[in-house]
Amino acid sequence: MPSEIQIRNAVDSDIEFVIETIVQAEKGDGDRISYCRLFNIDEAEFRKVSRKILEAGISNFEFSLGNFKIAESQGKQVAAYGAWLEGLDGISSGMLKISAFKSFLNKGNIVCYKSAATVADELSIRRQPGTFQFESIYVLEEYRGKNIGNMLVQALLKELMMKHPEVSLAHVQLIKQNSVSLLAQIKYGFQIIEEKTSLNPEILNFYSGNTRVVMEKKLR
Amino acid sequence: MQTTIEQITEIFAKLLKKPGLKLELTDSPNTIAGWDSLTHPELISEIEEKLDIEFDFRELAGIKNITDLVNLTDSKLSKGSK
User: Nearest CA of chain A to the CA of B6: how many Å?
Assistant: First the structure.
């Protein structure tokens, strides 16, 4: 473990770095942010809306600041990763996410969403309630290869397992063609348990590949 | 005059294309086929428009079933719309 790396919970002053994490994780090996295509917004607008959602402080979905842990080196944020318990309080993260975008975007964006989401949905896989869901990892380039991602996974799991000792599975979903992320997750102990492929060429307008995988890590 | 659940039922039936749909207070996205993240924004927008109310994110984040949606709508209506 790199001795100078500290892992801590994300706080309000980390919002900008968490937004960067979400954006870079969305882009993966490519340059697409699926949300931009879904809602017909540009990256700047996506960052603005992400800030509003994160500031709202709602827990247990992809845009919850409290889900994130930050890796810090000499006071500088160098990496972040988020995770939550899916379906806590009986509400799926997918419903929370769309409620957030509905609240902070205008009607025109939501009308765009309806037709775009029909295509994007070809790669959607329902998150399993009662599992820990990992989403959005980003490590600054110069800090890669130092096991920081694994430190974040361990820190997130330690906290989640203390709060929810009954949970036995952790999942992560990603685009299979995003080989860097795929290999990283294998290194963290996740294995592919499900795949979904779309043969619709339009899917590549949203994602950097046409296959989504669910990867699983057994916790006991 | 229609009750709130009747008005919401009418909207769900129309947008989910399920004529004759009968919503129960215990219904949720788990029990109503088609009530999912694809249709949710449209359902909520239609309720807001028809009843002249507006939900914020914090309120929407608390809706897990029809009971929550009816209660939230009633509380908005009792406050005199937007």
Answer: 23
Domains of chain A (ranges; CATH) run 5-163 (3.40.630.30)
Structural domain boundaries, residue B72: 4-78
> Are the C-beta atoms of residues A175 and A207 closer than 8 Å to each other?
yes
> Measured between CB atoms, does B56 come within 8 Å of chain A?
yes
Res. B82 pLDDT band, cuts 50 70 90 = low
A132-139 and A169-175 beta bridge pairing: parallel
Domain holding B19: CATH number? 1.10.1200.10
Question: Which residues in chain B have their CB less than 8 angstroms from residue A53's CB?
Answer: 57
pLDDT per position as a tens digit, B9-35:
999 999 999 999 999 999 999 999 999
Inter-chain residue contact A98 with B56, CB threshold 8 Å: no
Complex-level ipTM: 0.93
Query: Residue A121: is it exposed, middle or buried by C-beta count within 10 angstroms (0-12/13-18/19+)?
Result: middle
Q: Which two tokens stand for residue A98?
A: 């769309």
For residue range A160-179, list pLDDT tens digits in order.
Answer: 999 999 999 999 999 999 99
CA pair distance A215, B58, nearest whole angstrom: 31
Instruction: Tell me the whole-structure pTM to 2 decimals.
Output: 0.94
Q: Which token pair is A47?
A: 């960052």
Residues of A in contact with B55 (CB under 8 A): 103
Write phi, then psi, for A33 (nearest 5 degrees): -115, 110
Residue A127: what are its φ and ψ, rounded to 5°? -75, 140
Q: Which of B41, B44, B57 sits opposite A113 (nearest CB)?
A: B41
Burial degree of B21 (CB within 10 A; 0-12, 13-18, 19+): middle
User: Which residue in the set B42, B60, B64 is minimally distant from A89, CB to CB?
Assistant: B64
The number of distinct structural domains making up chain B is 1
